[in-house]
Amino acid sequence: MKSLFLKIFLWFWLTFLMIGATLSAVTTFIHPDDTLLARLSVRLPLEAKAAVDIYEREGKTGLKHYLDGLAERPSIEPYFFDQEGREVLGRTPPVQAAEYIKAMGIEVPRVSVALGWHEFVVQQLAGASGQRYTVLVVVTGPPIADLLTTPKILFILLAQLFVGTAFCYWLARHMATPVVQLSEAAGQIADGSLDARSGSNVRQRHDEIGRLGLSFDRMAERIESLVRGQQRLFGDVSHELRSPLTRLSVAEGLLRQCPPEEREEYLDRIALEVEQLNELIGQLLTLSRIDGGIDTTHRERVEVSSLIEEVAANGNFEAQTKHCAVTVDFIDACTTTGSREQLRRAIENVVRNAICYTQPNTDVEVTVRREYTAALSKVVIQVRDHGPGVSSEHLEKIFKPFYRIPASNGEITGGAGLGLAITDRIVRMYGGGASARNASDGGLIVKLELLLVE
Q1: Where are the alpha helices (DSSP H) in 338-430?
Q2: Catalytic: 323?
Q3: HSE (side-chain half, CA atoms, 13 Å) at 374
Q4: CATH code of the domain in which 210 resides
Q5: Which residue segment(s) compose the domain that 76 sits in?
Q6: Helices and strands: H and E segment counts in the chain
Q7: Which among 338, 349, 334 is positioned nearest to 401, based on CA atoms?
């Protein structure tokens, strides 16, 4: 049986049916008619006296006729014992009856449940001849055939079967349907439909299957994001590699044709293109390692102030060509956790980008402060330049890989467009975030948030 729905339905249906049948059997067979028992307990002394008189007067024939009259109901079985404990009519009573009768007292009716699924009433008394006799009446449950032909019992059983079947069908469908939907969604994703999801009816369930649906959708969104990102990355990489490779090919062709005195110029061009290719490939490898979660398990406490000072010192050396400087304002001493080298790279990318775009004779300003919210405590690093800023249409895109802002003349600015993307990946990998906004008096402010460790 390969259907989960049928398995669940049949298991619940059989369980319900067994419970219903067991309860019906227990109620019917273990607990016979209490009213009949009470009536027999009251009538038995009179009935026993009449049976003894008839036996002593008419013998076995009269006794049999009389006892058959008592056994009008199928659930009543009367027995008649003489003084030696033998059943007079040759009937076979329950096994425990003989032992029980020996303990009976004269003219004292007894009611007991000592014979398994049978209840019985017993009476001992002496006849006119002085002989002592015992009358035993066993009350049994009705046979199964009689139960099934009794309208009331049959109606109860059919009602139980109908209600149980409906309930088990609903329960099995309630459990199996979302599993089938999840299976179909997984199959669609495997076939390439990355936008497939579990469905709102699965996510809105308040049970384990609902949580499974939410987890499945988060997984699907992550897979879609990674695959789409990889597809975009491959396209962007192909585009970015095409230009330097084309220039290398052109330079190589010109080198073969140029006179010896001009070869140095083309060799320098080839060396520059190779260096740019090497830098681009290095940045791509860094971005790939971050997205793949490589080397993220190694974390250490990092003192942000010393890290910023190191980045600022390197930045000042680079900024000298523009007569600029990198200034640091440590409002608060802060500590975070992560890879020191990766965090240094993240901050350095922002600082170098600011140095590139700030106006000559201006400063790149770096501030570090703590920020407390109800949810968590953060280290906030802000890097501000005094450049042209970024228009609002491009502001949200500068952290995407290979995105470069068009210059005022419409040309694409230099660089591979990976520095801020790497920064964004690193800070998000350690539970933080990156954002950018334009300063009111000009320039761009890039804000990095990291988790604060006390």
Answers
A1: 340-357, 392-395, 419-429
A2: no
A3: 0
A4: 1.10.287.130
A5: 33-140
A6: 12, 11
A7: 349
- For the chain, the distance separating the N- and C-terminal CA atoms, rounded to the nearest angstrom, is 59
Q: CA distances (Å), 44 to each of 65, 101, 123, 335, in order?
A: 17, 15, 7, 96
> Contact at 8 Å (CB) between 219 and 225?
no
Query: In Å, what is the CA distance from 267 to each residue of 241, 259, 260, 270, 415?
Result: 19, 13, 11, 5, 22
The strand pair at 363-372 and 76-81 is best described as: unpaired
**pTM more than 0.70:** no
Looking at 100-171, which runs of residues are DSSP E strands?
110-115, 118-126, 132-139
Q: What number of residues does the chain have?
A: 454
Distances (CA, A) of 197 to 13, 90, 135, 176, 244: 32, 79, 78, 17, 41
Q: Which of 276, 294, 312 is the last residue of a domain?
A: 294
Is the domain of 250 the same as that of 271?
Answer: yes
CATH number of the domain to which 372 belongs:
3.30.565.10
Residue 291 and residue 311: Cα distance in Å, rounded?
24
Which residue, 346, 303, 360, 355, is CA-closest to 327?
A: 355
Helix (H) / strand (E) element for 398: namely none
The pLDDT tens digits along the chain (454 residues) read: 456 566 666 777 777 677 766 666 555 544 444 555 566 666 777 888 888 888 888 888 888 888 888 777 666 788 888 887 788 888 887 776 666 666 665 444 555 444 444 677 788 888 888 888 888 888 765 555 455 556 766 676 677 777 777 777 777 777 778 878 888 888 888 888 878 888 777 777 777 777 788 888 888 887 877 777 666 666 666 656 666 777 778 777 877 888 877 778 778 777 877 877 777 777 677 766 666 665 555 678 888 888 998 888 888 888 888 888 899 887 667 888 888 888 888 898 899 889 988 998 898 999 998 888 777 888 899 999 998 888 877 787 788 776 767 655 444 455 566 778 888 888 888 888 888 999 888 889 999 999 888 7
What's the CATH number where 48 sits?
Answer: 3.30.450.160
The C-alpha atoms of residue 5 and residue 172 are separated, in whole angstroms, by 6
351 in the same domain as 221: no
Number of structural domains found in the chain: 3
What count of other Cβ atoms lies within 10 Å of the Cβ of residue 248?
Answer: 17
Residue 113 per-residue DSSP state? E
The catalytic residue among 31, 239, 298, 323 is 239
Residues 6+ apart with CB under 8 A from 192: none
* Axis-axis angle for helices 208-257, 151-190 (nearest 10): 10
